[in-house]
Amino acid sequence: MTTETAVPLSVLFGNPAYLSPQLSPDGTRLFYLAPDEGVLNVWAAPLDQLDQARPVTHERGRGIRTYGLCHDDRTLFCLRDADGDENWRLHLVDIGTGEERCATPFDGVQARILAHNRWHPTTILLGLNHERPQLHDVYRLDVPTGELHKVADNPGYVSWIIDHDLTVRGGAALRPDGGMTIHLDGEPWLDVPYEDVMGTRVVGFRRDGTHCYLLSSIDANASRLFEVDCATGDRRLLAEDPTYDVKRVEFDPDTREPAAVVFGKDRDERVFLDPHYAQDLGRIRAELTRDGIDAEVFIDRAGPRWIVSAVTGAGPVLYYCWADGSLRFLFNHQPELEQYRLSPMEPFAFTARDGVTVHGYVTWPPGVPRDRLPAVLNVHGGPWSRHTFAFDEEAHLLSSRGYACVQVNFRGSTGYGKQFRNLGAKQWGAAMHTDLLDALDQLAAGGGIDPDQVAIMGCSYGGYAALVGATFTPEMFACAIDLCGPANLLTMLATGAPYRSPLASFLHAQVGDPETEADLLWSRSPLSRIEDVRIPLLVVQGAKDVRVPVAEAERVVAALRDKGLPHEYLLFPDEGHTLTRPANRDAYYAAVVRFLAEHLPVKSAAETIAF
Q1: Of the four, 272, 368, 373, 512, which is 20 to 30 A from 71 by CA?
Q2: Helix ranges, 242-392 (H)
Q3: Distance between CA atoms of 134 and 532, rounded to whole angstroms?
Q4: pLDDT tens, 239-287?
Q5: Low-confidence ranges of the chain (pLDDT < 70)
Q6: Pairwise CA distance, residues 460 & 609, whole Å
Q7: Would you state the pLDDT for residue 3?
Q8: Closest by alpha carbon to 311, among 395, 222, 369?
Q9: CA angle at residue 416 from 412 to 417, to 5 degrees?
Q10: 57-60 long-range contacts, Cβ below 8 Å, gap at least 24?
Q11: Do 222 and 242 form a contact (C-beta atoms < 8 A)?
């Protein structure tokens, strides 16, 4: 039986019961993330005896969010940083003994996992900015001994291209004009114009390394998948869509040839290149349908047994194992969610004031008439990302408390082709913001939301959008919630971790050039109009944030204090550019609920607040 009461914060934002299941390379053991003494750790169990699960790691700090399994079938690896400083260290754990060692014990150095596969089970290629903080060189890690050997110096690449023999084949370097050059096998291989940078990259190789798989939006609106002969440059088009970019490519685990291409529309759509894969996925969907499950399906097919994740959007994520033609349920990510009635994200589209078509999603309160509801405009970060159909904790936080959660893929968002994406260039605080306002007008015109009862919230770019809402268009919002949002675009571009410096030309082309467009950047900065704030504001910041200086948040808070405006300021000393620790997430979302209840109250029975 389900209930329409508000979902407790602990259920939405506490530790999940299960997350990120993976099968061991030999297919006999299941690994997953789960709490151990209140902290997310990696657990393991025989696939046929899940009741014998035990923790493999024993992290007691921020918890483990990213992990993987080495193909030696005895080593687990995970990345951890210190309180959100983004200086990731690689840790190796012996699955049998639990012994843990840090493979990159360097202060101020960020480790990136570049490549590891079944054909080289005891080798990992890493990117380390050990010698030059702004560039990641390539190192070969011998897993059994822990020895590191440099493989390649970085000539200025923002990303590396590596084949399945763990041979460094090249990389991508940004040019001063914001374009990019892809280098392959020692030569400049492809010049990518500025407008195609985000839609063009090498995504894989055939097992023999003779052909690569290239996503490219050059000479098209949206990214397409090509197979390219590395020696001759001859191309073969494999998949395309005139409007939507390729979201991901699903490869055959043995041949490493593409089996399917996924386009991120309102819901994901696959184009199958392998009929056998299409047949298997058809069987999986048929079994889910027989159980009454309409879901997005994600496949981890590393071996003969697959992990299947089913996302309905209106309940917990469901995990299965597909083996020998049958689907076996394993667990869902949060069983407590099953007792609550939840609404899925519903897509909508509208025409912006300049004629551009913009897409988004609304999550409506369950069981409530869609008649002039209070709404929260929840803005995604990036901004070079997008909202997708998913289980969205914040959407359920808001909708289960009586708010319509509005999520807009404003211009500049990815996935809708390069024309739409590049319409966001140098439109921070301008057309990117008016797209948000036009979405509200569309929903208000349909009678679903009350235009006088809207809040705006978000993290990173979404936090910036909330600050813009409070300073540029305060008449549109009842209150605003900013989590780690930049308030000054000039300092945002001038500061940050040194390894972000190779991205400067891209950022200048997309946001603005501080050398030639300082006035524009300042005029688009919320701090330039901080005196115009007249609505309550919740400002939240991580003290270890390497992207947004704490001083910016404190300048905003000082202005609010001087003006005597209602506000709240939360500073988390052990967080960075997002909130990871469960206790901090609980504190933040409890503050969000209180803040909205005070400044945007829900005048119905649906406003029940649970902690």
Answers
A1: 272
A2: 275-290
A3: 38
A4: 999 999 999 999 999 999 999 999 999 999 999 999 999 999 999 999 9
A5: 1-4, 604-611
A6: 26
A7: 62
A8: 395
A9: 90
A10: 57/93, 57/98, 57/100, 58/98, 58/100
A11: yes
| Amino acid (1-letter code) at residue 386 | R
Q: Helices 461-471 and 431-445: crossing angle, nearest 10°?
A: 70
- Fill in the amino acid letter for 35: P
State residue 90 phi and psi, 5-degree precision.
Answer: -90, 125
Question: Given the DSSP bridges, would you call strands 567-572 and 537-542 parallel, antiparallel or unpaired?
Answer: parallel
Tell me the residue type at 568: E
Query: What Å distances lie between residue 232 and 210, 213, 227, 363, CA to CA?
Result: 10, 14, 12, 50
Instruction: For residue 195, give the 3-state DSSP assignment.
Output: helix
Instruction: Answer for the pair 204, 184: CB distance below 8 angstroms, yes or no.
Output: no
**Are 175 and 168 in contact, with CB atoms under 8 Å apart?**
no
Q: Choose among 55, 52, 47: nearest CA to 98.
A: 55
Question: Looking at 217-367, which runs of residues are DSSP E strands?
Answer: 224-229, 235-239, 246-251, 258-264, 268-272, 296-300, 306-311, 318-323, 326-332, 346-351, 357-363
CA angle 483, 487, 492 (to 5 degrees): 100
Tokens of 74: 């005895």
How far out from the chain centre does Cα 309 lie? 17
> For 340, which DSSP code?
B
The count of residues in the chain is 611
Catalytic residues: 460, 545, 577
Output Rg (C-alpha) for the chain, integer angstroms: 24
Four-point Cα dihedral 231, 234, 236, 242, nearest 10: 120
pTM over cut 0.90 = yes
Angle 600-604-607 from CA coordinates, rounded to 5° = 60
**115 Cβ contact list (under 8 Å, min separation 6):** 124, 125, 162, 166
With contact defined as beta carbons under 8 Å apart, do 404 and 443 qualify? yes
Indicate the residue type of 571: L
**Which helix (H) or strand (E) is 59 found in, with range?**
none
- Which tokens belong to 198? 């985000």
Give the model's pLDDT for residue 286: 96
Check: CB of residue 329 under 8 Å from CB of residue 287.
Answer: no
Which sign, positive or negative, has the C-alpha torsion 590, 593, 598, 599?
positive
CA pair distance 248, 204, nearest whole angstrom: 11
